[in-house]
C-alpha cells in the first residue's frame, strides 16, 4: 500500500511528518514521492492563519479528486485545535464515527486520544 505524506506549516510539522514516514515504513507501507497513485494520503495540517486553514482544505479536496477511493487522513494542528471543524470536512472523513467522539492521534507518540464533543 502506498502512502503520500503532505506537510503544511512549520518545522515541527515537517519533523512530525518525517516521524510518520518512518512509522509507515516500519509498518510495511511504501512511501510515494508524488501524490499520483497513492492509496493513503496523510495531510499534516497547519492552522496558524486563515490561509493555512485554506491550504489544508485545498489539499484534502485535491487528493480526494485525484483518488476518490483513497483514504484521506487529516492530522496536525487543525485536528487538535479545532476537532469539530476538522470532523466536518467530509472529504477527509470517508468513514464516520459516532458523533460524540472523534479519535485524534499524536504524530510523534502515536497515542490515540478521544476528544469529546458535547
Walk me through this protein's architecture.
The protein has 118 residues and is α/β, with parallel strands linked by helices. The protein contains 4 helices and 6 strands; from the N terminus they run βαββαβααββ. It has helices at residues 11-26, 50-66, 77-81, 83-87; strands spanning 2-7, 30-31, 40-45, 71-76, 101-105, 112-116. The strands form 2 sheets. A 4-stranded parallel beta sheet has the order 2-1-3-4, with helices on both faces. Helix 1 links the parallel strand 1 and strand 2. The termini are far apart. Mean pLDDT is 80; it is low at 94-118.
Count of DSSP E strands? Answer: 6
Q: H/E series, N to C?
A: EHEEHEHHEE
Overall pLDDT metric: 80
The secondary structure category is alpha/beta
What share of the residues lie within helices? 25-40%
Strand content: 25-35%
Seen as an oligomer or otherwise, the chain set is: single chain
Shape: globular
Q: If strands are numbered along the chain, what order do they take across the biggest sheet?
A: 2-1-3-4
Low-confidence stretches: 94-118
What is the radius of gyration? 13 Å
Distance between the termini: 36 Å
Number of helices: 4
The main β sheet shows up as: 4 strands, parallel
Features:
118 residues, alpha/beta, globular, single chain, two-stranded antiparallel sheet, 36% helix, 6 strands, 4 helices, disordered C terminus, 4-stranded parallel β-sheet
What's the structural blueprint in terms of helices and strands?
Blueprint (H helix, E strand, L loop, with lengths): L1 E6 L3 H16 L3 E2 L8 E6 L4 H17 L4 E6 H5 L1 H5 L13 E5 L6 E5 L2
Parallel strand pairs: 1-2, 1-3, 3-4
Antiparallel strand pairs: 5-6
Amino acid at each position: 500500500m502506498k502512502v503520500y505524506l503532505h506537510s503544511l506549516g512549520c518545522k515541527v510539522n515537517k519533523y512530525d511528518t518525517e516521524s510518520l514516514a518512518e512509522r509507515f515504513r516500519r509498518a510495511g507501507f511504501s512511501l510515494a514521492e508524488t501524490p499520483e497513485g497513492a492509496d493513503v494520503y496523510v495531510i499534516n495540517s497547519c492552522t496558524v492563519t486563515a490561509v493555512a486553514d485554506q491550504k489544508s482544505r485545498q489539499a484534502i479536496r485535491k487528493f480526494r479528486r485525484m483518488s476518490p477511493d483513497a483514504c484521506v487522513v487529516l492530522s496536525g494542528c487543525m485536528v487538535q485545535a479545532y476537532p469539530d471543524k476538522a470532523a466536518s470536512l467530509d472529504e477527509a472523513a470517508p468513514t464516520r464515527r459516532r458523533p460524540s467522539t472523534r479519535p485524534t492521534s499524536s504524530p510523534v507518540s502515536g497515542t490515540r486520544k478521544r476528544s469529546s464533543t458535547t
